[in-house]
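Intended use. Records like the one below are meant for learning the mapping from a protein sequence to its folded structure. Do not use them to infer anything beyond what is encoded.
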Amino acid sequence: AYVTIFLCVHIFRQGFLLGTLGPQVEYFFTDAALANKLKDSFNIILPLGFLPMMFCTASGFAGYVLNRPNLAFIVVTLMSMVYGGLLLVPNVVAFIVLFVVFPVARQFVFSTFFSFSANTFGYASFGRIAGVASTI
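Structure written out for the chain above:
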């Protein structure tokens, strides 16, 4: 149950950010040209979220974190708190950092969920658990 709640909460938060980032940028940055540049920057950076995760994997950091489920849950939650806090700071640099932290946190959410599910419940029930968690 915990891993399902973990996934649901983080996917909800991420979906909320993805759905409301444009209006929030426009609210914080009244200069339309700057707001559009920031939104375009996010649209470019988001799909490239695998690059920082690739470095985390190559350095062994991702494996170290994912092999310790409690640490993985804490790291993901802290990263989510960081991007949530950065969203409250009406500063261009803070938003650029947010644009980099968010995709990495998103990658870690799914990595943590699938790693924990496979290691805890085994591969025989892995599909059912992933399906139920994704449906909720």
